[in-house]
Amino acid sequence: MLDVVVIGGSFAGLSAALQLARASRSVLVIDAGEPRNRASAAAHGVPGWDGVPPADILARFRADLAGYPTVRVLENRAEHITGEIDAYHVITASGQSFDARRIILAHGVRDILPDLPGLSGAWGRTVLHCPYCHGYEVKGQPLAVLATGPMAAHQAHMLRADWSDDVTVLVNGAEGLDESGLIAAGLKIEHRAPVRVARAEGIGVWFHDGTETQFAAVFTAPKVSLAQSPADGLGLGMSDGPMGPYVRTGPMQQTDMPGVFAAGDLATPMWNVNFAVGDGARAGTGCHQSLLFPDFIPALEKDAT
To answer: For 250-293, how does the pLDDT look when each residue is reduced to its tens digit (9 = 90+)?
Structure first.
């Protein structure tokens, strides 16, 4: 019986595991090797790691964790979680099974990108989601926002305010955009339907009439999914975020399932490496406290709705 199984070995999961390692608790981290930001050339806005490739940061995190003998990282995919507090059961894709007193979910979310040829190949490079993470590197250059819904206006206003005075909103059939407000703020509106994109020096967007426009980057807000999470059968309470659902958590990242904690992108609508590390530290600390004092960090009440 392990003390904790951590599902997901990226920033949140490894941060959680480190807190438990320093308490000499037995921890297994199960990681499928697919961090959400694996396509990004560099992480930005991360103190001490600004401009460093995410894979290099994670390698250092793993190296830190390797110094603690009670923690093991297993390269595999968690498929199912069943059980209850002090008696959870985890099964991997390869058929291995593990028992644990506590679970920390940190496996992230799945991005659902707009269905536009070429977009997925440029994702994380010149198709971007976050001005804070990537805006500085393309500031002052022509930028586009590919609309997926009302969140596009939020992105466009941010980019226009502090990153570029040349921002075009590609409406892309999205509804709910305040176009008059966008125009009043100095943004351009493009109603022609984009049919494909391609990376070059920046990124080219081709329209249905055969013309092309070049941008330094295209920003978009992908929908996200938690479908096929290994925790599907636990019935965790969820909240609705602007781009999709996320797991409802309390101050120490506890869920409404006793003994289950959640951290990182699956537990917040705000996606950022710094947030993931902080969430992971809270989850690891909260999880340890719950092992020592079972009533000290109670599970959230089930949402009546």
So the answer is: 999 999 999 999 999 999 998 999 999 999 999 999 999 999 99
Instruction: Report the distance separating Cα 15 and Cα 65, nearest Å.
Output: 9
Torsion angles phi and psi, residue 201, rounded to 5 = -65, -40
Contact call for residues 14 and 61 (beta carbons, < 8 A): yes
Distances (CA, A) of 123 to 88, 89, 227, 300: 36, 35, 21, 36
Q: Return d(Cα 103, Cα 87) in angstroms, integer.
A: 10
3-class SS of residue 59: helix
Distance of CA 190 to the CA centre of its chain: 29
User: pLDDT value at position 304?
Assistant: 56
Give the residue ranges of DSSP H helices in the chain.
11-21, 54-65, 119-122, 131-134, 151-162, 179-184, 273-292
| Burial degree of 300 (CB within 10 A; 0-12, 13-18, 19+) | middle
Sorted by where each starts, the structural domains of the chain and their CATH numbers stand as 2-111+223-292 (3.50.50.60), 114-220 (3.50.50.60)
For tokens 């392990």, name the residue: 2
pLDDT at 56 over 60: yes
What is residue 231's predicted lDDT score, i.e. its pLDDT? 87
Nearest one of 210, 206, 169, 211 to 186, comparing CA atoms: 169
Whether residue 220 contacts residue 145, with contact meaning beta carbons closer than 8 Å, is answered with yes
> What integer is the mean pLDDT of 194-221?
91
